Amino acid sequence: MRYAVVIERAGSNYSAYVLDLPGCVATGRIVEETEVEIREAIEFHLAGLREDGLPLPAPESYVDSIEVAA
User: Fold this and answer.
1) How many domains does one find in the chain?
2) Is 65 part of any domain?
3) What would the pLDDT profile of 16-34 be if each residue is shown by its tens digit?
């Protein structure tokens, strides 16, 4: 599955969250570390849902970049 992830600057570090998995978040000192952490958080979140016998949410969000003139 492919989930949309948002990574934002958060003061002196970065934070990430998954649009289709409420409560699935991670932080890191740099973007690359944050990407690793959110991947692990997604895997952990999905494993917890499976363990509880709950359905896995289907990825429904779509993310894109829109270029505009400054």
Assistant:
1) 1
2) no
3) 999 999 999 999 999 999 9
